[in-house]
Design a protein that fits this description.
The chain is an alpha/beta fold. It has three domains: 7-186, Rossmann fold (3-Layer(aba) Sandwich); 192-241, no CATH class; 266-338, Orthogonal Bundle (Arc Repressor Mutant, subunit A). The protein contains 15 helices and nine strands. The chain has a five-stranded parallel β-sheet, sandwiched between helices. Helix 6 (135-148) links the parallel strand 5 (120-125) and strand 6 (152-158). Helix 1 crosses helix 2 and helix 11 (243-268) crosses helix 15 (331-338). It binds adenosine-5'-diphosphate and magnesium ion.
């Protein structure tokens, strides 16, 4: 499917493509990756997109270099001349190999310096995943390139917006990137009318009579999030005609995302995992203020809870862009949160 709408976002990227860093934020499934793909195709500048989604929490050097190698391999035709000249990089058929240990090792900063010999755009998709043991090395390399590699434009995208800001260190004077200007583009959901138009056009292109009644349900439930609209439309096209069934599948998907999050928290603290679940459930069922969330969680636990610990739980969910102002940013997460089972704590 072609990119629908998003003229403003595309234009914002193209208009700012000479800047050292562009940041693209917005919740998951809002269309960030789709936008940068189209924008970079249109910009006519060689580019690499490094997809950071698969980086595990405490990723190591081998993981990061594998990711960068894969990305460079995908853009090999455009960068082959530059890559050929870099010591420590070898090209094996269609694959780029980067040496990260030993005498000919290539640091991230060196890699940027070499790529800077040509005009290039380097996009880190879901850049908040770069947080971890190597984050200061990556940040120092970005800061170095910001100052010295004027041929490189970086695009950083992030679904977990607070975590991305934490990583970049926007508000942290000790971050290498602190105080540097970067242009931010916030990707918003489709309006109601655009959602209808988007779906109608999609069905029309596939030669399917648009299902008026179900279309209304899609627009109503998925709140202008293109990823869900596409998900629902695809299910319909595959023959699932029951709206509830489609929606349930979407909820199951977000449910497993939330369960993963809670499981990850439980590795550090079972109490935190339990409180996170409670906060999610309370907000999902209408506790839309600090006072109400506190009351709701305390009611459940039967104890008075330290405001600091609860506020940390709320802030963590905000940094993940799951909630803002005690509301879910994606209605599917809200539905999933209502059904979370409360983990027991081990003390
Ligand atoms: N403007 C758009 N036009 C057509 N499809 C879109 C658009 N935005 C998003 N999509 C579809 O929605 C899904 C999620 O979009 P994606 O770009 O992966 O979101 P994000 O990177 O923000 O998580 C993809 O399948 C994509 O094809
Ligand atoms: Mg994406």
């Amino acid at each position: 499917m072609d990119l629908f709408d998003r003229d403003w976002e595309l234009n914002e990227i193209l208009r700012n493509i000479e800047r050292p860093i562009i940041v693209v934020t917005g919740i998951r499934r809002i269309g960030k990756t789709s936008i940068i793909n189209v924008a970079l195709n249109e910009a006519g500048i060689p580019y690499v997109i490094i997809d950071c989604r698969s980086l595990r929490d405490n990723y190591g050097r081998a993981d990061l270099y594998r990711l960068i190698s894969n990305a460079l391999s995908s853009s090999l035709d455009k960068l082959i001349d530059v890559l050929r000249m870099i010591r420590g990089i070898s090209i094996m058929g269609n694959a780029v190999e980067i040496r990260w240990r030993g005498k000919e090792q290539v640091s991230i900063a060196e890699l940027f310096d070499r790529l800077n010999e040509r005009r290039v755009v380097i996009a880190f998709d879901e850049a908040q995943r770069l947080r971890g043991p190597l984050s200061s090395e990556v940040l120092n390399a970005l800061a170095h390139a910001y100052d010295f590699d004027r041929n490189i434009t970086f695009i950083l995208t992030g679904s977990e917006v607070g975590l991305l800001y934490d990583f970049i260190g926007v508000e942290d004077p000790s971050s290498p990137l602190f105080g540097r200007y970067f242009h931010e583009i916030v990707v918003e959901r489709f309006s109601r009318d655009d959602s209808v138009e988007f779906l109608m056009r999609g069905f029309r292109e596939l030669g399917i009579d648009e299902p008026r009644n179900i279309l209304e349900d899609f627009v109503e439930s998925f709140d202008g999030i293109p990823g869900w609209l596409v998900y629902a439309a695809n299910a319909y096209v595959r023959g699932v005609r029951d709206f509830v069934e489609i929606k349930e599948a979407a909820i199951r998907e977000t449910m497993s995302e939330l369960e993963n999050l809670i499981r990850a928290k439980a590795n550090y603290s079972t109490i935190n995992a339990r409180r996170t679940t409670l906060v999610l459930r309370c907000i999902a069922t209408g506790s839309n203020s600090w006072t109400k969330v506190t009351r709701c969680v305390e009611e459940f636990e039967g104890v008075s809870i330290s405001p600091t610990s609860l506020s940390n739980v709320v802030k963590a969910l905000e940094r993940l862009s799951i909630i803002r102002d005690y509301q879910f940013l994606d209605p599917m997460y809200r539905e999933a949160a209502m059904r979370l089972s409360i983990p027991t704590t081990i003390t």
